[in-house]
Every structure is written in structure tokens, then in C-alpha cells.
Amino acid sequence: MKENGGRKQGAASPCAACKLLRRRCAQDCVFAPYFPADEPQKFASVHKVFGASNVNKMLQELPMHQRGDAVSSMVYEANARVRDPVYGCVGAISSLQQQIDLLQTQLALAQAEVVHMRMRHFS
């Protein structure tokens, strides 16, 4: 069987989006290349957060070469929103920024200690 987007031609298995939405998966289904049948949770999260209609509109408005990255971003953001309904991915970004700040402070202290030890050693 020949691959067409994310589906095999002649395959009876709809993509994860069409399966969740309980509709026939058309040959030119915009979701099929990005939401394969074996990854149902991927579309379920995106659908829960953004809605199928909005995802469809976003994908239709993008050039083909940008759609994969857009879907990856939507999946990441949707999963973050499901995990943390209040802050979503902003919560994760904030946490990482705090870790960076702490590590930069620790690095500055370690560098200052190295300078101090060198000065003591050469004095």
C-alpha cells in the first residue's frame, strides 16, 4: 500500500482526529499527516484545548512546510495546558527561567570563589 500523508491508501483506519470526531477520513484530510491513528492522545489534547475547527482553520491558513511545526507546537501547548490548566506552558517556562536564574547565581558565586582562591594562592 502506498503512503499518502499520514495514511495508507486503501486503509480502513481513519486518522486519530477523524476517529475521535467520528467521521470518515477523506483522502485529503488535513489532520491525517499530523495525527496518525496510533497516536490518539495527541489529537485528543489538541482538540480539548483548541477545538478541531480552530486547528483545521490554523492548518489550512499555513503553508504545507510550516504545518508540522505548528502541530508540534499545538501538541506541546495543549499537553502543558492539560497538565496545568491555569498557567499551561507559561508555568513550565517560568519554572525553567527560575532554574536558569538560580544556576547563573551559583555560577557567579563559584567564579568569584575561584578568583578569590587564585588571589590567595598567588599572594
UniProtKB/TrEMBL annotation:
Pfam families on file: LOB
Domain LOB: 13-114
Origin: domain of life: Eukaryota
InterPro entries assigned: LOB (IPR004883)
Family of this protein: Belongs to the LOB domain-containing protein family.
Full protein name: LOB domain-containing protein
Originating species: Camellia sinensis var. sinensis
